[in-house]
């Protein structure tokens, strides 16, 4: 029963439910609005799964990026994730306060180099199974073709938009 409810939560988002009166998701003419709406809805599902591990999706994403990138400057991390400095600084502050990351001066005095602490690596590893559960749920709902399509489309969109932004600087 619980598995069926989890599976259907994504389906209910996509169409009007006769039982709970949810409004059908409408197509908006703005790519930004549609991408942000999808991101918010998916983030809520990941947050729900990660709640048991005591971590939010935004925090998990930073731990995951640091686990993959190793020592990285704050500026480079922001570029990798497409995060503005204010949002990144706020979230990193929370991770530092929990002892999950450490910040050291970079080669340039203005740079801050970030890395996971041992506690951060443990938190990341312990939260991974909950993240994997959220991944599996979304993958199941989208199907393999839909999963592949959304992964490719979002990565390509981010890369092209970021490339364009850097060219305008």
Descriptive notes:
Mean pLDDT is 86; it is low at 1-21. Strand 2 and strand 3 (112-116) form a beta hairpin. The chain has 169 residues and is mainly α. The longest helix is centred in the last third of the chain and has 51 residues, at 118-168. A 3-stranded antiparallel sheet has the order 1-3-2. The chain has helices at residues 2-14, 31-50, 57-69, 74-81, 85-97, 118-168, and strands at residues 72-73, 101-105, 112-116. The radius of gyration is 18 Å and the shape is globular. Helices cover 70% and strands 7% of the residues.
Can you give keywords for this protein?
169 residues; mainly alpha; 6 helices; 3 strands; globular; disordered N terminus
Radius of gyration: 18 Å
Uncertain runs are 1-21
Strand content: 5-15%
Describe the strand arrangement of the main beta sheet, using strand numbers: 1-3-2
Arithmetic mean pLDDT: 86
What portion of residues is helical? 55-70%
Beta strand count: 3
């Amino acid at each position: 029963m619980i598995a069926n409810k989890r599976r259907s939560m994504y389906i209910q988002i996509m169409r009007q439910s006769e039982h709970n009166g949810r409004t059908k998701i409408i197509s908006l003419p703005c790519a930004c609005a549609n991408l942000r709406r999808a991101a918010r809805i998916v983030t809520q599902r990941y947050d729900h799964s990660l709640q048991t591990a005591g971590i939010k999706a935004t925090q998990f994403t930073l731990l995951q990026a640091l686990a993959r990138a190793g020592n990285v400057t704050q500026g480079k991390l922001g570029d990798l994730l497409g995060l503005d400095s204010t949002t990144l600084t706020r979230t990193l502050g929370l991770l530092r306060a929990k002892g999950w990351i450490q910040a050291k001066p970079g080669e340039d005095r203005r740079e801050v180099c970030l890395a996971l602490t041992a506690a951060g690596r443990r938190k990341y590893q312990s939260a991974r199974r909950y993240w994997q559960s959220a991944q599996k749920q979304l993958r199941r709902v989208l199907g393999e073709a839909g999963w592949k399509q959304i992964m490719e489309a979002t990565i390509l969109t981010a890369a092209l938009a970021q490339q364009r932004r850097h060219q305008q600087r």
